[in-house]
């Protein structure tokens, strides 16, 4: 126990930073088991605590750990035709974001991150209001555009959830297929970003990765908590709470 305490102290983090890391793992776990939208809240919370660019690299392994839970549980439900349709454009968006993110200042990065989060919230709200009237666009550029935007958003701030949700909603997928397809898409995309964070942005290091490993129990707890909360909380109340909290956190990045 003393060795563990000494190891934790070596990171020189404040109590608030440790608390936000644990909360982030909890929320990401919840987002993978049905509490949609809550993962977006994590992005501004960590950005305010650790800085925009470092927080993106810190969050990525946490997301991958949570993706493993999701793809294991929903593996057989994935519809690969939708994943393969989006991936090339998502990869293009990731490359664009890597170049942009490497050349802009930290302040501009934070503002761009905040803008993407607020845009994601707008998509969530619009989707909720128009879900019963939304018609699938016939143009091929619908999938290409969302793939490109999703790739850019996921590299800059791990904030592509609302974009992917909009695409999957338009495809009218059953619930399990919706979750399984999204889980595999993000697992592949998130893995592809790791080399860029290590060698281009240098936001993932051995120290940050070990720190992420400490969050795995919180991720697992969040996954179980999410299953329980889905049955307990009224979805409308919960989504309003998530949107308001995320919006306030994003505004602080400006």
In the residues, how many domains can be counted?
Answer: 1
Largest sheet: none
Unreliable segments of 5+ consecutive residues: none
Percentage of residues in DSSP E strands: under 5%
| Category by helix and strand content | mainly alpha
Helicity level, as a percent range? over 70%
Net shape: globular
In terms of quaternary structure, the protein is: single chain
Number of alpha- plus pi-helical segments: 12
Count of DSSP E strands? Answer: 0
What is this structure, in a nutshell?
The chain has 254 residues and is mainly α. The protein has twelve helices and no strands.
Give a verbal description of the structure.
With 254 residues, the chain is an all-alpha fold. The chain has one domain (14-252). Helices cover 81% and strands 0% of the residues. It is built from 12 helices and no strands. Helix 2 runs parallel beside helix 4, helix 5 packs parallel to helix 9 (175-200) and helix 6 (106-130) runs antiparallel to helix 12 (235-252). The mean pLDDT is 83.
Name a few traits of the molecule.
254 residues, mainly alpha, globular
Secondary-structure map:
Elements: H1 2-9, H2 15-31, H3 39-50, H4 52-74, H5 80-103, H6 106-130, H7 140-157, H8 161-170, H9 175-200, H10 206-213, H11 216-232, H12 235-252
